[in-house]
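Lab notebook, bench 4. Still working through the backlog of constructs that have no structural model yet. Next entry is a single chain of 368 residues. Request: give me the structure tokens for it.
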Amino acid sequence: MIQRLTLFSTVATLVLSASVASAQTANMTDLIAAAKKEGQLNVIALPRDWCGYGALIDSYKAKYGIKVNELNPDASSGDEIEAIKANKGNKGPQAPDVIDVGQSFGPAAKAEGLTMPYKVATWNTIPNDLKDADGHWYGDYYGVLSFQVNADLVKNIPQDWADLLKPEYKNSVALAGDPRGSNQAVQAVYAAGLSASANDTAKAGDAGLAFFAELNKKGNFVPVIGKAASLAQGATPIIIRWDYNALSDRDTLKGNPKVEVVVPKSGIVAGVYVQAISAYAPNPNAAKLWMEHLYSDEGQIGWLKGYCHPIRFNDLVANNKVPKELLDKLPPAEAYTKAKFPTLEEQAAGKEVITKKWDAVVGANVTK
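Model written out:
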């Protein structure tokens, strides 16, 4: 009797699995057809050299024959949220369908009714603490903040945050965004504060502002948004940015100049970015198909090729789906084992302090 029950249970499981698989296939077929009928996807704030996005966009277009309208590639997370708000009644090409923002911006966008829930086929392989239970936002990739250094101009490569205060780095240090709206820049200030406060998360926001106020007072801080071009030209020979952006620039510049990428010894902050679909998306099916593309094995490995750790990284590694040559190109594993992943509450508290008090405490107007 037990054997019969076991056999019945096994058969039932196989039948159920087959039914689920065929239902998913049918759903994907319908989704692809609906997305193709819309014919366009509006993305925003996706530089083609950020996290392998250029190749991901091109593969989506090639696979599905859907046009991708790339809005304002250099926009910040704050700009993305404002773009949704400004285009609530606009069904044209200026209204973003999807956003890729810093983790703290996800819950805030949901609270304001700006996001549409959707769960991708690989939903269960996304860690629970890095996704909204209802599917309004979900983590996509992460990295750690690093120093990107023009080694042709900077002979003594800084190894930690305190080094940046040395006189030899006068007119040298820049952020990769405006800390009043850029998640990357906010996290950089927060990381400096963690280092200065011995990892006291309650004090990191204020300590980070104090650090940059001193950096600015010493004349070491350059108040422009640092990019690969300004690094190469020598206008910003040291840029604080996500490791995946710095490593991508290193490849792009091809030794002209020589680029060193350093993960600081302290204040190592890992930043998670999240995806969401706009509640006012003019092309909601193309947006859902874009999410399926990004969270497939192919899409996740596409991010890894851009030096980003995809959110499904552990799942991919456990199933031997990550090519060894990709793993070998990443920074040493210890840079990640020592990293601090701030909670949403910690991020929100730090962001509140940094964005609102930057002008008063640091007094540097960061420009493009």
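Notes after review: The chain has a mean pLDDT of 91. Residues 2-38 form the longest helix (37 residues). Flag for follow-up if needed.
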